[in-house]
Amino acid sequence: MSYDLHGKWDLGNQWTGEYLNPHTNLTEIGKALDLLWRNKIDSSKVVMGLAFYARAYTLADPSCVKPGCIFASGANQGNCSREVGILLNSEIDQIIADHQLSTTFYEDAAA
Q1: How many domains does the chain have?
Q2: Best label site of 44, 46, 60, 61, fewest CB within 10 Å?
Q3: For the chain, what is the mean pLDDT?
Q4: Residue bearing the bigger pLDDT, 24 or 58
Q5: Is residue 2 part of a domain?
Q6: Is residue 73 part of a domain?
Q7: What is the C-alpha separation between 12 and 10, in angstroms, rounded?
Q8: Which UniProt keywords apply (predicted)?
């Protein structure tokens, strides 16, 4: 599975900590796949999923909004997702439109 690597369950976890980590992380996926390749797993036997939702957080410090910042809890539930810490892509798109937000790609953190 190439998603749900991080989420609100990281809160209080001594190994991962409560950092703003994406639930899909290219670095971690690459390392996991490397383990398969080193063990001669046939790549045609590997299936990767794609989530149409995101793990969402409430920030500990609203002014700290980049990778490495700390979260306090899962974000409020969405109108459709109805689960704390999860927002559907459509809910995220609506929040961005409603609040005229822009997105930022952190290339170093995604590598």
Answers
A1: 1
A2: 44
A3: 88
A4: 58
A5: no
A6: yes
A7: 6
A8: Chitin-binding, Virulence
